Amino acid sequence: MAHDFTSDDLARVAELARIDLTADEQPLFARQLSEFLAYARQVQEVETRGIVPTSHPTGASTPLRADVVHECLARDAALAAAPDADTSTGLFKVPRVLG
């Protein structure tokens, strides 16, 4: 491990993450956090100068369909598939969530 966390370090990280660690969990979390940070340091050491950033690994663009306006589903057809629809007002009825 490249970094050994003190109990104060671990308590601060746990507080920031809003987790309560038991005394039994602290050594495990300290080891896992040390391993994670060691890996992050290893990734930072990779030489990336001269490498062009990519937004897509294959270089292929995703074909998009044309943005064409189509006729929408008729209100009566949409309401016919809904349970307890109020066809007189053209509204869907849903169970009450609040109040």
- SSE sequence, one letter per element: HHH
Indicate the overall shape: flat
Q: Total number of β-strand segments?
A: 0
Determine the fraction of residues in helical runs and give it as a percent range. Answer: 25-40%
Radius of gyration: 28 Å
- Average of per-residue pLDDT values: 85
Helix-and-strand structural type: mainly alpha
Q: Outline the biggest β-sheet.
A: none
Report strand %.
under 5%
Q: Identify low-pLDDT runs.
A: none
The first-to-last residue Cα distance is 55 Å
Count of runs of 4 or more consecutive helical residues = 3
Characterization of this structure:
The chain has three helices and no strands. With 99 residues, the chain is an all-alpha fold.
List the helices and strands and how they pair.
Layout: H1 7-17, H2 25-44, H3 75-80
Brief overview, please?
This protein has helices at 7-17, 25-44, 75-80.
